[in-house]
Amino acid sequence: xxxxxxxxxxxxxxxxxxxxxxxxxxxxxxxxxxxxxxxxxxxxxxxxxxxxxxxxxxxxxxxxxxxxxxxxxxxxxxxxxxxxxxxxxxxxxxxxxxxxxxxxxxxxxxxxxxxxxxxxxxxxxxxxxxxxxxxxxxxxxxxxxxxxxxxxxxxxxxxxxxxxxxxxxxxxxxxxxxxxxxxxxxxxxxxxxxxxxxxxxxxxxxxxxxxxxxxxxxxxxxxxxxxxxxxxxxxxxxxxxxxxxxxxxxxxxxxxxxxxxxxxxxxxxxxxxxxxxxxxxxxxxxxxxxxxxxxxxxxxxxxxxxxxxxxxxxxxxxxxxxxxxxxxxxxxxxxxxxxxxxxxxxxxxxxxxxxxxxxxxxxxxxxxxxxxxxxxxxxxxxxxxxxxxxxxxxxxxxxxxxxxxxxxxxxxxxxxxxxxxxxxxxxxxx
Length: 430
Known about the structure:
The protein is α/β, with parallel strands linked by helices and 430 residues long. Helix content is 33%, strand content 21%. It has helices at residues 65-68, 105-108, 113-116, 122-130, 135-145, 154-167, 179-189, 199-208, 226-235, 254-258, 263-267, 274-278, 292-298, 301-325, 347-354, 372-383, and strands at 9-14, 21-24, 30-33, 36-39, 49-54, 57-60, 171-175, 215-221, 239-245, 269-273, 335-342, 358-368, 387-392, 399-402, 405-408, 418-423. A 7-stranded mixed beta sheet has the order 10-9-8-11-12-16-13, with helices on both faces. A hairpin with a 6-residue loop joins β1 (9-14) and β2. Keywords: Nucleus, tRNA processing. It comes from Steinernema hermaphroditum.
């Protein structure tokens, strides 16, 4: 599926921007990304890719790097002094981004210094945007209207143009969601909802659990379905992923729902209620569920039939999942890997109910944003004979790489969690 249809999820990112949004496409949906607003109607029926925004309407566009360049007249570098705009850093000799400007009368009168250095007013900029002026032309006018642009260093000029182009860009990317993009979107927006799980830690978890084609994995997570989505994507339509969840149906898994999965991949998803695990059997009827015979009398029969068929399909998959997880200490289940990611649940409580489902030589992987629960789980697993136990975290920083200016980003989220892994073995009896 290469076209965008109603009901599909897409990754929305402004060209050159930093933020990423996961949006469900529908008619007459107003989308806002970094002060760029547009309607989603223009994307329906189009291919994934680059779009141009003109008067809040989307039109497919082709990216041409040469068209994005802003012509700037190069000047000879001026001799550097301690107070000039061509000064360099005394410590490393790198050019300064901007030099201090002597306060003029407008600054002394309380006027914003940025406005005093720009001939174009805010109203004129908004008027040009409303008239549909191209972003390249708008940035060129901002460069021409900057009274101090010619006094900047070459590096400062490039940075100024890059920031203005990013701020006033009228191009947006609509891409097919992937696990990497979904993880990055939630981590930048609200990391606590996914238990501060960074993309590098997610890949570490998938590697430790051995997620691959044909594997049987059992997952209990509180990361909005992010780990489940990563496992199912790696399976490629072959294998089984038993997903433990609260309630009657698997809810609060937007990361899994956002993926464009093939029918073969969907078949590998086996939801299993926690109540089934606690009651040691599949509960066929639940008093909280509606009576479908009464629904046929009061409501549309077709809707009642669809709801009833969904229940039958859910129970069928749940029975298959239960057959895989049922087991005891002597005869464990047929689960190859057990993955647990907790935010406000003690992982030992989950281990006590699921450890017998893991077969011998199976891998157990636990993740938590704090170390204390995993330390207790480490001792719990060690007392039951698990081997190759390892607990640790990882340090991850993004670096900006530019000519003669490579350094870590000064403001970035680097928090994550801890990962505990081990292998279940049969303890020999004396």
